[in-house]
Write a structure and sequence with these properties.
Blueprint (H helix, E strand, L loop, with lengths): L5 H11 L10 H24 L4 H19 L13 E2 L2 E2 H19 L1 H4 L8 H22 L2 H14 L15 H9 L8 H22 L2 H13 L5 H13 L6 H19 L3 H13 L10 H10 L3 H30 L12 H8 L4 H11 L4 H18 L7 H35 L1 H20 L10 H21 L4 H11 L1 H6 L4 H14 L8 H10 L3 H11 L1 H12 L12 H23 L8 H15 L3 H36 L1
Antiparallel strand pairs: 1-2
Length: 677
């Protein structure tokens, strides 16, 4: 049986997730930091159930805890050398002072909130001083917790805001004075205290805490056991267990790396044991785990931000995300199955698998919190209220259920760990607020959108004469090229900053370009979201794939490349729902006929893309067969019956050859068996 070792999983996450590289602490400092982390979780748990505070106060209090704790938890450098500076519990005194300064600057806006109506636009000198400190401290806190990439991007935006008159072409603007920029970023809801921080403080934190508690009471182990029962016995069983368990685990975890190390510590060695190559095993786990951010009911933080941007209920977002998530897992499952067939791998033996009835009998209480959470979301109540009752149910089940029983010490540890997980995303949300504030102040989003659509239209005009069979017109090709540009921007930006930050920045800058071409807002947002998630398994910076490679003992770059190949469905599906929005169900274009045609065509295309990339369907494929199959699969996915008909004509000869080769192989195998007998 595959059994989760909670302590080992946390150690692996701390090793491979840069957001968990925290400094060692001792004595008084460890006690104070632990109490502050648990207090932050208690604050969010209480407000989720008994009412949020005034917006400015709620966000200010959240930021004060987050930024202050980051200076205590994360060192100035990843590996801190001994310093001549005095320290308290291994934390230098200057970090205690920076933590206090961060808390004061965060509390300042809620403190003077009643007076801001009379001086926004004309800030006092003290406002500018506190605002400057807030910007600097936010950038430094983000650098410590997430790395240098996002703060550098934010600094570039600040420079653009100040010196816009020197910008080239359409990007030029009059430029802002520092006083006016600080006013916009610090004293209004368009900057640091904007939507990103509001969503983290109102939604994301609660679901992170729910995921930690649900895993602690046994939900993660239950999902792995159920996946083993469902898929373990079949060809390449451990890899299929990885796909199913990661999909289920993604329902309580929105983190790709946490998902990879928790389930991967079990499934990757099992995959290697039956014959999968190490880099392939790592890639399967990483690709399956990144699906957690797109799998309802708990998706990545970006999904909650989508609620605010689109002003839609969370259940609408979840409904829209369901079918694309299934397509992602269909693509992985197909390639895992075909790779196992190609290599002739076995499944799990009965003695290696748990008993289904026993699993449900012992583990069903761990499902109660998830069931209650989904039911409350489906009823139309707020996500944070659903999270509150989900957390409450986790606590009740944990204390009452003899299996994985929760103690008060465990509860304190979970509340502390939940807050630790939320620190980095909280800092990144504040830094992204700086970027979004500059975009809104300078009108940069519409300027970039104009540049993108103009460039795409010019390139489309050049390429259109070379498009065969009249598949598209100028507007269709312009849209396609704009999607390509946006996808590349998401992947490049996602190489340096996390999914949530990538999503917010690209939605502010690139999504308007799709809107100009007639793409519905929810479709544009999902397109950017999907490609932001894809960055987690796209070299050269594929953190989830590298974590899997570390567990498998494989080449990280090779694992990243294989993970990207396995995620071909995730790369393809966003184009499908742009051209056929019926896949998202909640769009105006939805009809059952359009939905079924889209889903069936996409499913067939994904299966045959998997065959082409694996080089195996029912028998081994030649290079020519793989190329023809790949082209046919793309045509199946493309909208319209014309393209599907051409795809079928390309595919039929390949299928006939495959069947003939399979029969010849079977006859040869039977003859060999008879001769051996």
């Amino acid at each position: 049986m595959l059994t989760i070792d909670q302590e080992k999983a946390q150690q692996l996450e701390e090793e491979y997730d840069p957001e968990m590289h925290m400094r060692p602490m001792a004595g008084f400092a460890s006690l104070i930091v632990g109490i502050l982390l648990a207090t932050l979780s208690c604050f969010h748990y209480y407000t989720a159930g008994f009412g949020l505070l005034r917006e400015a106060t709620h966000r200010g209090l959240h930021l004060a805890f987050v930024l202050g704790l980051i200076f205590l938890v994360f060192g100035f450098r990843k590996k801190e050398a001994a310093s001549w500076m005095p320290a308290i519990g291994k934390i230098p005194v200057y970090d205690w002072l920076l933590a206090l300064m961060a808390a004061v600057t965060c509390f300042y806006v809620p403190y003077v909130f009643e007076d801001l109506a009379f001086r926004v636009g004309d800030p006092l000198s003290i406002d500018v001083v506190f605002g400057t400190l807030m910007i600097v401290l936010t950038l430094e806190a983000t650098r410590r917790s997430m790395g240098i990439a996002l703060p550098l991007i934010a600094a570039g935006f600040i420079i653009y805001a100040l010196y816009g008159k020197y910008a080239p072409g359409v990007l030029v603007h009059p430029g802002a004075e520092w006083k006016g920029l600080v006013n916009h970023l610090y004293l209004t809801s368009q900057g640091i205290y904007g939507i990103a921080v509001g969503v983290v403080a109102t939604y994301v934190f609660h679901f992170v805490l729910f995921g930690v508690l649900a895993n602690r009471i046994g939900a993660g182990q239950l999902f792995i056991d159920l996946a083993s029962c469902i898929a373990g016995r079949y060809t390449g069983g451990p890899a299929k267990v990885s796909v199913f368990s990661s999909a289920l685990f993604g329902m309580i975890s929105g983190s790709s790396i946490a998902n990879t190390v928790t389930t991967g510590a079990l499934t990757i060695p099992a995959m290697k044991r039956i014959g999968y190559r190490p880099h392939f095993a790592a890639a399967v786990e990483a690709t399956s785990s990144t699906g957690g951010q797109i799998t309802p009911p708990i998706m990545g933080a970006a999904a909650f931000i989508m609620i605010e941007f689109l002003e839609m209920p969370y259940r609408t977002i979840l409904l829209a995300a369901t079918v694309p998530a299934l397509m992602h897992y269909l693509g992985i499952f197909t390639m895992v199955h075909l790779e196992a067939k190609r290599l002739g791998l076995r499944g799990l033996r009965p003695d290696e698998m748990p008993k289904f009835v026993k699993v449900l009998k012992e583990g069903w209480p761990a499902l109660l919190p998830l069931v209650i959470l989904i039911a409350i979301i489906a009823s139309g109540r707020t996500p944070y209220n659903a999270a509150f009752w989900g957390i409450t149910t986790c606590i009740i089940v944990g204390f009452l259920n003899p299996r994985n029983r929760l103690t008060f010490k465990d509860l304190y540890g979970c509340f502390r760990l939940g807050a630790q997980y939320a620190l980095a995303v909280g800092a990144s949300a504040a830094t992204v607020g700086i970027i979004v504030g500059v975009v809104s102040l300078t009108g940069m989003g519409f300027k970039v959108s104009f540049m993108v659509t103009s460039s795409a239209q010019q390139l489309a005009g050049f390429l259109l004469p070379f498009i065969p069979f009249g598949f598209t017109d100028l507007s269709g090709l312009t849209l396609f090229l704009t999607l390509i540009f946006t996808a590349i921007a998401c992947i490049l930006l996602g190489a340096g900053i996390p999914t949530t930050a990538t999503y917010i920045v690209l939605v502010a800058i690139a999504a308007p370009a799709l809107g100009l071409l007639g793409v519905a807002p929810i479709v544009a947002h999902f397109f950017v979201f999907y490609y932001g998630v894809l960055a987690d398994i796209t070299p050269p910076v594929a953190l989830a794939a590298y974590a899997g490679a570390g567990i498998a003992g494989a080449n990280p770059f090779k694992a990243g490349n294989t993970a990207f190949r396995l995620a071909s469905a995730k790369a393809l599906v966003p184009f499908v729902f742009v051209y056929s929005p019926a896949m998202l169900i909640v769009t105006e274009e939805f009809t059952w006929q359009a939905f079924l045609v889209t889903v069936v065509g996409c499913s067939v295309g994904i299966v045959f893309i998997g065959a082409a990339l694996t080089g195996f369907f029912i028998s081994h494929m030649t290079t020519a067969e793989r190329l023809a199959t790949f082209i046919a699969a793309i045509l199946f996915v493309a909208p319209g019956l014309k393209s599907a008909a051409i795809g079928l004509l390309l595919l039929l000869p390949v299928l006939l050859v495959q069947v003939a080769r399979y029969r010849v192989g079977k006859k040869r195998q039977l003859a060999d068996n008879e001769q051996y007998t």
